C-alpha cells in the first residue's frame, strides 16, 4: 500500500535556513515525521543556484512510501 506525505520547503529572502512544513499527511504520524526529518536534513546541505539566493520561493515535495505486508 502506498502512502504520500507532502512537504513544503519555503524560503524567505534574508533568512538563512528554509522552513519545512507538512502540507498533506500520509495518514501515519511516523511517516510524516520521517518525511519532515528527511527534507529538513536535505535543505541544510543543498546548494542553491545563484539565481535563487536572496529570493522568496516555495517547493512542494511529495514523499512516497510503500508499506509492506
Structural overview:
By secondary structure, the protein is of the alpha+beta class. It has one domain (2-66). 25% of the residues lie in helices and 38% in strands. It is built from one helix and three strands, in the order ββαβ. A three-stranded antiparallel β-sheet has the order 2-1-3, with helices on one face. A hairpin with a 7-residue loop joins strand 1 and strand 2. The model has no long low-confidence stretch (mean pLDDT 88).
How are the SSEs placed, and which strands pair?
Blueprint: E1 2-11, E2 19-24, H1 29-45, E3 57-66
Antiparallel strand pairs: 1-2, 1-3
Brief synopsis:
The chain has 69 residues and is an alpha+beta fold. Helix content is 25%, strand content 38%.
Unreliable residue runs = none
> The biggest beta sheet, please?
3 strands, antiparallel
Query: Which outline best applies?
Result: elongated
By secondary-structure content and strand pairing, the structural class works out as alpha+beta
Strand content: 35-45%
Total count of helical runs of at least 4 residues? 1
- Rg calculated over all Cα atoms: 13 Å
